[in-house]
Structure formats: C-alpha cells, structure tokens
Input
Amino acid sequence: MKILILLLITFFTMSCSQQEVYSSEAISKASQSKYIIEASALSNDGQLTIVVNSDGVCLWKNKQESSAPKCLPASHAKHIEIAYITKDKQFFYLSNRVSVKKYAINNFQIVGEWQVADNIINDISTSKNGQLLLLGFRSGKASIIDTQSNKVTTYKKHRLDINAVSLSENGQIAFTGSSDKKAQLWNTSTGEAMHEFKHASRVNHVDISADGLVGFSIDAVKDRKFWNLKTGELIADLDTYLKFMEVNDSVFSADNSLFLTGSPRQVLQLWRVSDGALVAQWESSMQYGRASVLSVAIHEASSKTKSAQSIFSGNSDGVLEQWDFPAHK
Output
C-alpha cells in the first residue's frame, strides 16, 4: 500500500509540474518538389528555400505563393548533400562533401568554389554576410575560408570527426561538435579554444546564437544542453526523457529565449532556453513516407511590416509548412 501511495504521489506531482505543450495544424503548406529531396535549406526568417533534387537546384520565394521558383539545371545538383543560405539572404552554398560552391542569390552565378586537400566535408556554416565560411571535416580539422580574399586557414580542432559546425554572425566565434565526445568553442582568427564541453558520446549537432552568447550541443545518447558561451557554464538541459534524440536543423530566436529544432521523426519542437522546457510541438506532413524535417526557421514579428511571428519547416518530401507561433512567457 505504501508503495502504491508513493507511486500515485509521484504521478500527480509529475503531472502537475508539466507545462502544457502548445500544438496546432499548419497555417499553410506547399509542395516544392515532385520527388524526395537530397538537401534543403531555409533562410533564418523562412522567406527563402533552397531545394535540391534530381531535377536540379531551385530557389523558392515563400512569400510569393503563385511565383515559380528560379532553378539551376540538374548538373548543379549532382551528389549535393549540403545546402545553406546566408543570414543576409545574399548567397547560398552547395556542397557534395568534397567541395563547396558559393552562389549569388540575385543572379544564380557561382562566385567561388573551394576544397581543402582531401578532407571530406561533414558540415558548413557562414558569417551573416557569407564572407567567412566554416567547414568541419571527417579528419577532425576545421577550415575558415575568407571567400573574398580566398585565404584558407585550417586548424586541427578535434581528435575524431567533426560532425557539426556553427558560426556566429560576425564570424569571430566557431562552435564545433565531434565524435571525440566534445563540443568546442574557439576563436576563428587564432584557432584558440575558449571553452570545451564534454559529452557522454559523440556530438552530432551544435548551434550558436547570432550574437555568439548562447550555444546548444547534443550527443547521440543523453546530453542535450544549452550553454552560456561567455562563461562556459550550463544554462539548462532539454527537459525530455526521449532516448536517442536527433536534430537535423535548429535556430535560436532573436532574443535567445527560444530554440527551434527539426528532427528525422517528422517533428518540430520549440524549447525555452532558460530551463529547457518544451513549449510547443508540431508534426510535419508526408507525401511519400515518413518525412524528415531538414530545415527550420523562425520569422520574427515586425511592427514596421505588421508581420506575424511564425515557424517554418521544410522536409525531405519537399513540403514547406508554416505554423502559428505560440504565445510564451
């Protein structure tokens, strides 16, 4: 009887302490591909999408629902696995993991191409204006490339594969996650480590806020942490018991209070940074099977344009969706 009472108390305590998680149907959805796509990227505000499939590489302007996308032929899409749109929406990058090409969004011209020796590229990130390019390699090395001067600086940052990279908007701070069970914050000018964060297993995803003050890292088993990157101290763990959680893409809100993630399990989740609480969750639509969420974005409210705050996602079935942004404290 005592054990039963204790179990009931535990159950009701957990039920009362859990915050209600917001969810809703998509406000709008659009198909941006006839096939399962190879790679995609959303601009941080959700207004542009790059979609790569067997037909080619297409740029969609998501505000203009009736307009056709601007596309490059299939030759540009060959073996492409990574797509990236710069935060100022002036350039996009495509990589086949051996090299990376930079394109101008206004005319789709290639403005640069780089590869570093025989290194295999696992992830890329850029500064806000796209001038500085960060590459993370399977060798544990990372390169900072000035795409205007073509200066390439390579550092040996990790003992094993670098699986994920993220760069602050000014390009001065890099955050890298590796199979060596470490996430490292470092200065891109000198390569000097600023903080190192140990994990239980390989680090599969990292992200850094625009101002370089808040970071997130997740490993393959149990560590999912927000970090104060100025002090190196832990802010919070994600408040979830889910095992083997994966993140394909993520973005911080402009004020660093919220963090949006997209997963291979069709799910988008919005987390509060201060305590790791889950505040909202959505399920992405399918066309051809269980759709992996490949890219996410937060469109911030603007009093000037009277635009509403909303969430965007793009998935492996080529479906772009827009979601209501929940009221939060």
